[in-house]
Amino acid sequence: MKKACATSNPAKEYMRKLIRRLIK
Predict the structure, then answer these.
(1) 1-24 confidence digits (pLDDT tens)
(2) Angle at 14 between CA 9 and CA 6, to 5 degrees
(3) Are 6 and 12 in contact (CB under 8 A)?
(4) How far, in Å, CA of 18 to CA of 8, rounded?
């Protein structure tokens, strides 16, 4: 499900990656 969401919404995955980097 997560992979499908990322493929359907690449922008969303990018934002999530940015947030994760901020948290780190």
Answers:
(1) 556 555 667 788 888 898 899 887
(2) 30
(3) yes
(4) 18
